[in-house]
Structures are given as structure tokens and as C-alpha cells.
Design a protein that fits this description.
This protein is an alpha+beta fold and 342 residues long. The chain has 8 helices and 18 strands. α2 (91-101) crosses α3 and α2 runs parallel beside α4 (135-147). The longest helix has 18 residues, at 165-182. The structure holds adenosine-5'-diphosphate (ADP) and magnesium ion.
Length: 342
């Protein structure tokens, strides 16, 4: 089975929310739509769900075009950011709701509700109202409700955004484990790169109604196709190769004489004692030291109008640098990549 989105276009008045978006998702895959607020993630998810009508394009499941089908006729489970549980119904009744709409026999519904409560670890909360549950528990119930009718595809729109940091981090891994156990094809919308990296098989980076790049987190981080992706996934030091900047050796071919903007990840910056010389070695002052437990972040100021560089070091050597120290930073040529030609 696969879900195919073909050339979907959607406008709101003069605004192009989706501009001929195409994408294929394999059975059992967990895909995240990632991008800044307003880039069209929710609109695309709603078009897939049948909650929003596209002007052009197709949504196909197993080769069958769904575009004319209303939302209720598509076998998709949907969870939104805000707890969309019915406030006057118990957790169990919320989960049962979709099954009652489908007129399933009562004892089958009861059995399925118990199964779903066990699936999300909330057997003991069946008779509580949403207001008696924590945010994390409410989202688990919303998930159980979406999964109860055994949908072919699960659609999640920022399901963790309203939760506390700790709960959010726990639920990421929990939802991912659940999705893998069930093998259910899942699309999740998020603006949080860490969430996407933690949960997704593939990430779809969106920008202004278009898909910028699709790939695994590793691919997007290691080989970003555009400056936008390079800056959106992980941290990146940008080094425009113009006036104030010392010329740096790098492995990329030249862009017909145009100056390049080079990028380097913080963990690729190497540190040496003051006085060390070599290619791409630049003296700098340690302007800031941020100890983060498993790693230390250093802000290195080379002066001379060059912008400060963020470096990350792990392990015991990280302790050796102090605020104000003179060091030499090395920007290894094989770690410098052209992210844009000017
Ligand atoms: N019902 C609507 N009416 C008018 N504009 C909308 C509507 N829904 C979304 N938009 C606009 O479409 C763009 C994409 O919105 P959305 O898909 O919600 O973005 P995202 O989920 O990536 O934050 C935004 O500029 C938003 O303001
Ligand atoms: Mg949204």
C-alpha cells in the first residue's frame, strides 16, 4: 500500500497555501511534515484527511483516488494539537464514539475500547472525564480514539505541542513505539525539528507551500539540498566568502566565480592551542562557554569583523576551555559545504 499525493494545489484567496505538492508515502512509514509556521503543513494534512478541498491534484491510497470522498468515508484516524476530546464523555465513551458511529455491536465495541485503553496504558482511567486527566493522558485517549476503528492511515497535527517538555519527550518515544508495533502508516505535522528527528522515518521539509526536501533525518542533516534546510535541521555556522572573511579551502567545486556562503556544523569545528598553524586555522577568543552535561558549547570570536562561530565539543577535552581563552579553531575543508552561491 502507498499513499500518493499528486500535484495538490490550494489557495486561500490570493495566498497559495499549497503549490503543486507531490509526495509518496509507503505502507508502515512514519513521515513528518516539518516547517515554520504558516508553510502549509496543516493544510496538506487536512487535504489528505478530506477536511479541506484542494482545487487541483489527487490523493490516492493503494491506487484509489480519494479526492471526491468526504472525510468520514476515508478510513483515516486524526489527532489534533488541542485536546479535541468530548468534554462531557468519559475516556471510554470517547474511544467508543467512532465505533458507535459505525454501528458496531455493543460487546465488540466494549472489547475494542478495553484493548485501546490497554494499548495506551490507561486501563484504570476508563471512567474519568477529560478534565480529570492530565494533558498527556488526554492525548493518549485521543490517540486511542483515532486508532479504535483500525484506520489505514494515522494523521497527527502537532499532537504534542501543547504538552509540558518532559511529557512531550516521553510521548514522542511512546507514540513511535506504538506506531512501529502496529505498523500503521502515519503522518505527523510538527514545527519542532527535534520531534521530527526523533520520530520520523522520513522528514518532509516544507516552505511557503512547497516541499523543499524529503529524506531521513540523517540525510537532511548531512546533505541539505538548500540553505533553508541546512539552517532548519540542526545548527549551522554560516561563513559568507566575501570581504572581511579569510579565504577558506573547501571541497566543493567553484560556482563560476561567484562568492559562496559556506556552512559548517558546530560539532565539526576543531579546537587547538593558541599558535597552532595550518589550512583553515583561525585564531579566536572563547567568548562564551555553555556546559550542557554531555557536551559543551563554545562561542568562538575570531574578531576582524568575522562573525562568531559556535562549536560543540564532547568528552573530557571540553573542560579545557575557559571564557576569554585564546585558541585556534580549525574549520576542516572536508566539513565545509557550500550552502548557497551569492
Ligand atoms: N481557513 C483559512 N483561511 C485563510 N487562510 C488560511 C486558512 N487556513 C490556513 N490559511 C493560511 O494558509 C497558510 C498555511 O497555513 P497552515 O497550513 O495552517 O500552516 P502550518 O500548519 O504550516 O502552520 C497560512 O498562511 C495560513 O494563514
Ligand atoms: Mg499547523
Amino acid at each position: 500500500m502507498s499513499l500518493r499525493i499528486r500535484e495538490v494545489t490550494k489557495h486561500f484567496g490570493a495566498l497559495t497555501a499549497l503549490d503543486s505538492v507531490s509526495l509518496e508515502i509507503a505502507r508502515g512509514e512514519f513521515v513528518c511534515f516539518l516547517g515554520p509556521s504558516g508553510c502549509g503543513k496543516t493544510t496538506l494534512l487536512r487535504v489528505i484527511a478530506g477536511l479541506e478541498q484542494a482545487e487541483a491534484g489527487h490523493v490516492e491510497l493503494d491506487g484509489r483516488d480519494l479526492i471526491e470522498l468526504p472525510a468520514q468515508a476515508r478510513n483515516f484516524g486524526v489527532v489534533f494539537q488541542s485536546y479535541s476530546l468530548f468534554p462531557n464523555m468519559t475516556a471510554a465513551r470517547n474511544i467508543a464514539y467512532g465505533l458507535e458511529c459505525r454501528r458496531q455491536p455493543r460487546d465488540r465495541i466494549r472489547k475494542r475500547v478495553d484493548e485501546m485503553l490497554a494499548l495506551v496504558g490507561l486501563q484504570d482511567h476508563a471512567h474519568k472525564l477529560p478534565s480529570q486527566l492530565s494533558g498527556g493522558q488526554q492525548q493518549r485517549i485521543a490517540l486511542a480514539r483515532a486508532l479504535a476503528p483500525d484506520p489505514q492511515v494515522l494523521l497527527l497535527d502537532e499532537p504534542l505541542s501543547a504538552l509540558d517538555a518532559k511529557v512531550r519527550v516521553d510521548l514522542r518515544l511512546e507514540i513511535r513505539a506504538l506506531q512501529q508495533r502496529l505498523g500503521i502508516t502515519t503522518i505527523m505535522v510538527t514545527h519542532d525539528q527535534e520531534e521530527a528527528l526523533t520520530m520520523a522515518d522520513r522528514i518532509v521539509v516544507m516552505r511557503a507551500g512547497r516541499i523543499e526536501q524529503v529524506g531521513s533525518g540523517r540525510e537532511l542533516y548531512g546533505r541539505p539540498a538548500t540553505r533553508f534546510v541546512a539552517e532548519f535541521i540542526g545548527r549551522l555556522n554560516l561563513l559568507p566568502q566575501d570581504g572581511g572573511m579569510p579565504a577558506l579551502q573547501h571541497a566543493t567545486e567553484t560556482g563560476a566565480g561567484r562568492p559562496a556562503v559556506l556552512g559548517i556544523r558546530p560539532e565539526a569545528v576543531r579546537l587547538h592551542p593558541a599558535g597552532t598553524e595550518g589550512a583553515n586555522h583561525i585564531p579566536a577568543t572563547v567568548a562564551q562557554v555553555v556546559f550542557l552535561g554531555s557536551m559543551t558549547q563554545l562561542v568562538l570570536d575570531p574578531g576582524n569583523g568575522m562573525r562568531p562561530i559556535l562549536a560543540e565539543t564532547h568528552g573530557p577535552e571540553a573542560g579545557g576551555f575557559e571564557h576569554g581563552a585564546q585558541v585556534v579553531m580549525e574549520l576542516p575543508a572536508d566539513q565545509l559545504r557550500v550552502v548557497e552561491w551569492q
